From TrEMBL:
PANTHER family tied to this protein: OSMOSENSING HISTIDINE PROTEIN KINASE SLN1, TWO-COMPONENT HISTIDINE PROTEIN KINASE
UniProt xrefs under Pfam families: HATPase_c (PF02518), Response_reg (PF00072)
Organism of origin: Candidatus Thiothrix phosphatis
InterPro entries, per the entry: CheY-like_superfamily (IPR011006), HATPase_C_sf (IPR036890), HATPase_dom (IPR003594), Sig_transdc_His_kin-like_C (IPR004358), Sig_transdc_resp-reg_receiver (IPR001789)
Family annotation (SUPFAM superfamilies): ATPase domain of HSP90 chaperone/DNA topoisomerase II/histidine kinase, CheY-like
EC code(s) of this entry: 2.7.13.3
Name of the molecule in the record: histidine kinase
SMART domains xref list: REC (SM00448)
UniProt KW keywords: Kinase, Phosphoprotein, Transferase
Top-rank lineage group of the source organism: Bacteria
Reactions that this protein is recorded to catalyse: ATP + protein L-histidine = ADP + protein N-phospho-L-histidine
Positions of post-translational 4-aspartylphosphate modification: D145
Length: 210
């Protein structure tokens, strides 16, 4: 079984000019390199795909037509099932978790991990929408980033602590801020736990189970 995908880029590529998969190859060879980049992205991608017995190719119809990157990866026909040993289940009723995270990829990855572990998960991408969702969902646990649009994580925690529906929720800060002052601020805002990104999934699941 093969997994295939395509990526479209605005920048054109022409075989007659250079091999885009060579390290440091760039279409913009001026001294100031106004478009930025080191010319390593496609080279690294090719190396990673080949390590997994995959392939990658580039094609462009010419200037102004963009570039199409096509890749293929072999994969198993069926994915192994997640076992009880690797995904501890919450005891009793299904635990409701609210994720407040403005990074879409991080939020969806975390949602997937928690749903596979048996939790009922809701995601909000801004601080304000997180507070509004909490009033409706009434989560048992809130995983909240600190650097958020509209309201930062500290303001979110304070708002949840002063709202009767969420005052007793377990608040866990999941953030890139790791200084002692940051930890002190999370405690003062009302967080119960301060976890630093990237969080080890086993560590996170341990806190949730507790």
């Amino acid at each position: 079984m093969t997994f295939s995908g395509k990526i479209h880029k605005k920048t054109p590529w022409r075989l007659t000019r250079y091999d885009p998969f060579e390290a440091f190859a760039q279409s913009d060879r001026s001294l100031d390199r106004s478009r930025g980049g080191l010319g390593l992205g496609l080279s690294v991608a090719k190396g990673l795909l080949e390590m997994h017995e995959g392939t990658i190719a580039a094609a462009s119809a010419g200037n102004g037509q963009g570039t199409e990157i096509t890749f293929q990866l072999p994969c198993e026909a069926e994915l192994p099932a997640l076992t009880q040993a690797t995904a501890p289940q919450p005891a009793g009723k299904q635990v409701r978790i609210l994720i407040v995270e403005d990074n879409l990829d991080a939020a969806e990855s975390l949602r997937t991990l928690l749903e596979l572990s048996g939790y009922d998960v809701t995601v909000a991408f801004t601080g304000l929408s997180g507070v509004e969702a909490a009033r409706t969902v009434r989560p048992d646990i809130v995983l909240c980033d600190i650097g958020l649009p509209e309201m930062d994580g500290f303001a979110v925690a304070r708002a949840l602590r002063h709202t009767p529906e969420t005052a007793a929720a377990r608040l866990i800060a999941v953030t890139g801020y790791a200084a002692n002052d940051d930890r002190q601020q999370t405690r003062e805002a009302g967080f119960d736990v301060h976890l630093v990104k990237p969080v080890d999934p086993e560590v996170l699941l341990g806190h949730l189970a507790a």
